[in-house]
Amino acid sequence: MKMPTDRTDDLAAAWFARLLSPDCSEREREKFEQWCAASDRHADAFAAVAQCHEDAGALRSDELMRAAVRAARNTARPHVRPGHWARFAAAAVLVLAVVGGTFWFVHGQQVPSLRFATAVGEQRRVDLADGTRVQLDTDTSLTVHYSDKARELVLGNGRIQVDVAQDAGRPFSVLSGRGRVRDIGTEFQVERYGENVTITLLTGLVSVELVEPALRGETGSVLTPGQQIHLGAQGGLGAVMPVDLALLSDWTSGTLTFKDRRLGDLLEEMNRYSPMKIRVADPALSRLQVSGVFRAGDQSSLLQALQAGWSMRSTRVSPDEVILSPAR
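^ that's the sequence the OP posted. Answer follows.
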């Protein structure tokens, strides 16, 4: 099939590639929806680009790939409604990743490993093919490897909450840093910042183990609901600690709840959601105990709360940095 050459087709090809990019933002996806809805020609051009990739020799007889393109073509019609960008993006990821040559096998079919990412301040929910649901927090990178024998997620950075679909024939695990979480039918969270990894169990059971050959002799830990474990850059598994389940999942709805926590912890968490960072002039301020419910990324409201409730003064030292100090 001949590749399109006019401006509309060029834009369709550009959108196809952009939707695959790890740093594609929610705003860009909204613009993609608007672009498709603006003209029948736009929607048809996007489907045509997907068809061109389907016609590549490696995909010609692959029914799974053909089904993905049909789904994109059927969706790319007049009156594209909000929320439908995900169908286009899924087809783009599926086809382009296969053309790129990254393959895994599921039930005898060639399928790609999938990569997902969120920008600073962005959150995203991903529904995987087996029914597993993954919520990605701000500034998170995740790779999904599914085979006909196992399902594995690799968390490169950030935080995820996973609600695992049952599949007795394919064990489910999450690899992050030095640790591996093996699911035993459950919902759990994994967060990784640098080499520090934290696993928190919401429901069910999970086992946690180290993956380095030199440390495999160490006994793993099994978590029950309301328990958490930390893995640092060095040493073995940390102690299993209890956590407040009522506060664990607020971030999935864009809210951060703190109860008698250090100000330093609050600022570290809020700063992950915004390019504007709030810091303290005196390290002693970081130890101040604070409580409250804050909207993730809403730095202005946080500053107002700290000024009113904890008598602090804020000084903007640059467009993306504010310093807190005690009010005089």
